[in-house]
């Protein structure tokens, strides 16, 4: 399912941003962690975090769907991960949240880092997982990272159309890829059916085709952040699974060292963890998040 609630923020001429709060409300007496989902997922990716009473009693969880995802939409067909970072900061503004921690899965991780670069005084800590801070470079591919352009550009070409496509519905092949790559260790038939249904609801009609096309464009053409990481001052707890298919574990070991100005850096390698680590290994993720927020709130 996509977010049932949306708010309007001003970036890009007026974005309608999909979001979900734990306990259905914002409690200003608690610290807040913003959750940013991975490619083609929605706020539903974080059900294991929202169902953890230890987390929701200790902090507000605010899941926000990036541009091109879930219930989020905007008048501009083109956008980048920087735009999603600005949008998410404006979602915080809307609810009067001055400071927050940010957890991001896969693409959510590098959106989170962009938020800390754009508003360093507002981000208290970062928790990227299943991520790489590089673009899809030859260097990263030589260290075991994937080459999405080789396999995914065909979808981008297929979703490009000079005329409106009112009958468009995302195909089963794409739905299967999204689920199997991210939930590698446990793509149960029930979960695959849930995400296939969700993707087909989100990515339908001409607007849905444009959304998924640009979401993929953001992935294929994103800029790297390696030279910017030294400017991050907040703590960084990076979690990576040993079974992370797109990025493996070599690159995180190297890149965590580039956060040279951070108050604290910690790389946690999760045995058996897949790409969508918060879904495949929620216990390890939830424990690490609680420790970071408790220490730095």
Describe this structure in words.
With 297 residues, the chain is of the alpha/beta class. It has one domain (5-296): Rossmann fold, CATH 3.40.50.1820. The chain is 40% helix and 16% strand. It has 12 helices and 8 strands. It has helices spanning 47-50, 53-58, 81-94, 107-118, 138-142, 148-158, 172-182, 189-202, 205-220, 250-255, 277-280, 282-296; strands at residues 5-9, 15-21, 32-36, 60-64, 100-105, 123-129, 236-241, 265-270. Strands 1-2-4-3-5-6-7-8 form an 8-stranded mixed sheet, with helices on both faces. α3 crosses α4 and α7 (172-182) crosses α8 (189-202). It is globular. The two termini are 31 Å apart. InterPro entries: AB_hydrolase_1, AB_hydrolase_fold, AB_hydrolase_sf, Epox_hydrolase-like. Keywords: Hydrolase. Residues 61-134 form the AB hydrolase-1 domain.
Summary?
The protein is α/β, with parallel strands linked by helices.
**What low-confidence regions span 5 or more consecutive residues with pLDDT below 50?**
none
Strand order of the largest sheet: 1-2-4-3-5-6-7-8
Report how far apart the termini are. 31 Å
* Number of helical regions: 12
> What is the CATH superfamily classification?
Alpha/Beta hydrolase fold, catalytic domain
| Name of the CATH architecture | 3-Layer(aba) Sandwich
SSE string, helices as H and strands as E? EEEHHEHEHEHHHHHEHEHH
What is the highest CATH level, the class? Alpha Beta
Major beta sheet summary: 8 strands, mixed
CATH topology: Rossmann fold
Number-wise, the strands total 8
Basic shape? globular
As a percent range, the share of helical residues equals 25-40%
Strand content: 15-25%
